[in-house]
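Reviewers of the previous submission asked for a worked example of the structure-prediction workflow described in the proposal, so we include one complete record here. The input consisted solely of the amino acid sequence. No template or homolog information was supplied to the procedure at any stage.
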Amino acid sequence: MRRDHWKRRNDSLDPETDFVEIYRNVVMYEFPWDMNQALSFALFRTYAVPGIGRLLEETGAFTEQVQKRYDDTALLLEPPTRLGFEHPESRAAIRRINTMHRAYDIPDHEFRYVLSTFVVVPKRWLDDYGKRPLTPTELEASVRYFRTLGRHMNIRDVPETYAGFEELMDSYEAEHFAYDEGARRVADATLALMQTFYAPPVRRPARLFARALMDQPLREAFRYGAPPVAVQRASRAALRARGLALRAFPARRSPKRIEDISWIRSYPDGYRIEELGTFPVPGVAGCPVRHERATSTT
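From that input alone, the workflow returned the following structure tokens.
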């Protein structure tokens, strides 16, 4: 397979009708590591919005069971990419997501903002660190993919273009990014989890590396100190060098699934989509994640 196989394949497809296949090729074949990192950073950004970060901290979802919540999020978001939106497994995953969200009083503007990060952050990541940027066809497919996800989640007034998503994300962050103690605890727990993905000798540098990749508004929202400029430059240069090196590698032949990633560790014996995530306790207001029911795996 030629090195540009997936680029040529995606550009031969129609983003209006083939957007799921194009997005799948981007996520699972062409940029699996980059897209995983970018989408993780996209979710991390959302914690800097106090309404989002505080809610996650109050439930305990991303502090007391951070590994499971990380795994559940990744596993629930994958089926529509891998199988398409109409597949029963995808419908079950989206139903599980919607059921969890309905347990909270979440304003629609927060849903729109989170959706925008899934479109904008990966594009910017690949512009900066990927072996190549997204093509216009791939970018249009990404927009259509997340507009479709938004429709399945009943999110209103979703932007129609990448420029619309970008303006939404940037303006929302400028207005809403702020420090919150609960959100900071969620961010700290997430960074602590990230450190466990690496061998002990590099865990401390990994946390510094992550902060070096954060932009200033994001660091300020969490009151994280900026690493030395030399560290920031070296961290970003290392990622750019990786992207350049990958241009020499052949195209990936097999898909990279979420369950193939070594740091997805909560379900060594398998899982059922219907049992991922959190479950409210009958008779208790809200969604008390701290008392979620025990689940089995198959």
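Confidence is low (pLDDT under 50) at residues 283-298. We consider this example representative of the routine output the project will generate in years two and three.
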